[in-house]
Amino acid sequence: MIKGLGTALITPFDANGKVDYEALARLLDTQLTGFVDYLVVLGTTGEAATLTTEEKKEVRQFIVHYVHTHPVPSLEGRPGGVIPLVLGVGGNCTAVVCESLKTIDLTGYEAILSVCPYYNKPNQEGLYQHFCKVAEASPIPVILYNVPGRTGVNLLPETVMRIYEAHPDKIIGIKEASGNIEQIKKLIQLSNTPSLEGRDGEGFPPLLVISGDDGIACEVMQAGGAGLISVASNAFPEDFWHIVHDKDRALQTKYNEMVKLLFAEGNPVGIKAVLAQKGIIQNYLRLPLVPASEELKERIKGLEVRG
User: Fold this and answer.
1) Which residue out of 56, 170, 175, 185 is catalytically annotated?
2) 38 is catalytic
3) What are the 10-residue block averages of pLDDT along the chain, 307 residues in total?
4) What local confidence, expressed as pLDDT, does residue 272 receive?
5) In degrees, to the nearest 5, what angle opens at C-alpha 153 toward C-alphas 91 and 176?
6) Which residue is catalytic, options 109, 128, 145, 284?
7) Is 175 labeled as catalytic in the residue annotation?
8) CA–CA separation, 244 vs 6, rounded Å?
9) Pseudo-torsion of CA 160, 166, 167, 168, nearest 10°?
């Protein structure tokens, strides 16, 4: 079920710095239209690192309840129903991540998305052992998350496959945000090699390789990738659904400049500026992140007008 377009949801805040649940409901309404295949909750884009344990619990539960009471309509021959949810659960202390997985309520979530440990800069063996522990602790499937630009470490294709082969019953995919298309292609090739141990005869499907970069979604899909976990689809779900499902390179090219602007001052700075301009949220972030500069907001607004 975790294929196609997934939106990495932002977390809206109000002027007092509190989670803005009215804005979150408005955002969810824009996502529950049939053009998003699943939602990723409390990831990097959701500013999870700055939310308290209680806030994370409240956001988790709010989204589960809202999604289950607002089923997606059938659209263009696609079935409707309750949209799948993926929850971000990661960190740079293996023991803390594993304890969280054993204690938090994961009801309503299909899988977790777990980022490579950051700051510590473990080697490949450390990454392998970390994710093996995460797989053992998680009661639901696990999607690995490789994003070297944020973590300082690169989860290599061979290590990914070691982790998968050690826990094929739990590891279902990887969000690959290295930006290295050759590395991603190599991983896709390895994940589809039928002779890999633990694959044939055991009923385990190939590892899902999911693009973590809006700007190269078509390239990843054409290489055999399983879709995109998108930041941009917070604001442009229909267009990015077509980019993913139709492999529409022309439409992706149309968004090249917008995608660059979304990340020009950090994520989710850009996408929150877009959503605020659309009237969906207020443009507030939590320190150390600050709202987009006036210059960036004007550049984004100019693209919006031309689009």
Assistant:
1) 175
2) no
3) 94 98 98 95 97 98 97 82 96 97 96 97 98 98 97 97 96 97 97 61 82 96 96 97 95 96 97 97 98 97 64
4) 98
5) 85
6) 145
7) yes
8) 10
9) 80
* 8 A C-beta contact, residue 271 and residue 302: no
pTM attached to this predicted model: 0.95
Q: Quote the pLDDT of residue 103.
A: 95
